[in-house]
Amino acid sequence: MSISSFCCRILIGSCLQFSPRPTVSDYKNQPQFSDMFIFCLSLMGLSDFKSDVSMENFLLHFLDWFFFIFHLALVLFNLLGWIWKRTRVWNLAVLLITFFSWFGLGLFYGIGFCPITEWHWQVLRELGRTGLPTSYISYLIYRITQFMPPQVIVDYATMIGALGAFAVSLVLNIRDWRHRRKPVH
């Protein structure tokens, strides 16, 4: 498959297909920092590591890390963006978009659907990864800590965190809006 057709497939997206609950052995082929470091050294010609270093392979690894960092930042912003007054309106907007994705698009693709997750899953499948969890938060936890918590706990914690952040963001945005409307005497 060419790079351009693969990128088009990612941008267009497709229906999220759920796989069975993964085991730790399913994650043995997850990228480790040392693998990426050796890969980069081999690209620069500084390592004797022999692999199928190609532009498509490099692009897939780049997209993997891009989606990982971007999605992690988005999750953290959803949970903590209400803290800073300058980001509160944006935080509320991003939370509403997230809920629209989970429950609006979720009516068509499955509750909890996220197009960013789907695009990252497509990249990971092209890299040969199998047994991906049904929850991106589970994937983040495993990729960062190498620990796979029970899915039920992750689902509840995700919903409690998202609803809690939404409630706080909404209350603070309303309060800020009211303070802006009050005339100064």
Give a structural overview.
The protein is mostly helical and 185 residues long. The protein has one domain (24-181). Helices cover 66% and strands 0% of the residues. The protein has 7 helices and no strands. It has helices at 3-12, 33-43, 55-80, 88-109, 115-126, 136-145, 151-181. Helix 4 (88-109) packs across helix 7. It is elongated. The N and C termini lie far apart (67 Å). Residues 4-28 have low confidence and may be disordered.
What is the residue-mean pLDDT, rounded to a whole number? 81
Radius of gyration: 20 Å
Alpha-beta classification: mainly alpha
Low confidence ranges? 4-28
Number of strands: 0
Provide a count of the helices.
Answer: 7
Overall shape: elongated
The termini sit apart by 67 Å
Quote the beta fraction.
Answer: under 5%
Largest sheet properties: none
- What is the N-to-C succession of helices and strands? HHHHHHH
Count of distinct structural domains: 1
Considering DSSP H and I runs of 4 or more, what fraction of the residues is helical?
A: 55-70%
Describe the protein's topology:
Blueprint: H1 3-12, H2 33-43, H3 55-80, H4 88-109, H5 115-126, H6 136-145, H7 151-181
Helix pairs in contact: 3-5, 4-7
Brief sketch in words of this structure:
The chain has 185 residues and is mainly α. Helices cover 66% and strands 0% of the residues.
